[in-house]
Amino acid sequence: MENLIIKATKSSPSICLDAQSRILEITGESYPENAANFYAPVFAWIDRFFAQTNNTPVTVNITLHYFNSSSSKVLMDIFDRLEKAHADGTPIIVNWRYHEENDTAVECGEEFKEEIECIAFNMVEFNDEDS
């Protein structure tokens, strides 16, 4: 399966969905004009990926400095797909990465963590010295 790589823009995040390493990454800011259209290829890739999975663990790294309410809904849709894959036997770990000074990212991560019941959801703080 081919990887999906989308370069970041001013209003959309960098997305790297790597089938071989089984690492899914979303990084940057997410406030595209039409979040559903922007994330449609991500949903399609995730659906194909988990249809072909052999229950090998998957890591999801999300580092969003800012995102709007439309992107928040999209993230919940992604988490729903991850929970379904987990229920079907694929171990999944989500790492919600946030800068130590970004209180909004912390609060949002904690809210998502409360909504997600069956998969591991780690809150991972970083600072300017971390790479």
Kindly describe this structure.
It contains three helices and six strands. It has 131 residues and is α/β, with parallel strands linked by helices. The chain has one domain (4-126): Transcription Regulator spoIIAA (2-Layer Sandwich). Helix 1 packs parallel to helix 2. It is globular.
CATH class: Alpha Beta
Helix share of residues? 25-40%
Unreliable spans: none
Gross morphology:
globular
Spatial order of the strands forming the largest sheet: 1-2-3-4-5-6
**β-strand number:** 6
Question: What portion of residues belong to β-strands?
Answer: 25-35%
**What is the CATH T-level topology?**
Transcription Regulator spoIIAA
Helix-and-strand structural type: alpha/beta
Q: The biggest beta sheet, please?
A: 6 strands, mixed
Q: Gyration radius, to the nearest Å?
A: 14 Å
Any guess at the CATH architecture?
Answer: 2-Layer Sandwich
Whole-Å distance between the termini?
29 Å
Give the mean pLDDT. Answer: 94
Following the backbone from N to C, one meets helices and strands in this order, namely EEEHEHEHE
- Taken together, the total number of domains comes to 1
Features:
131 residues, alpha/beta, Transcription Regulator spoIIAA, 3 helices
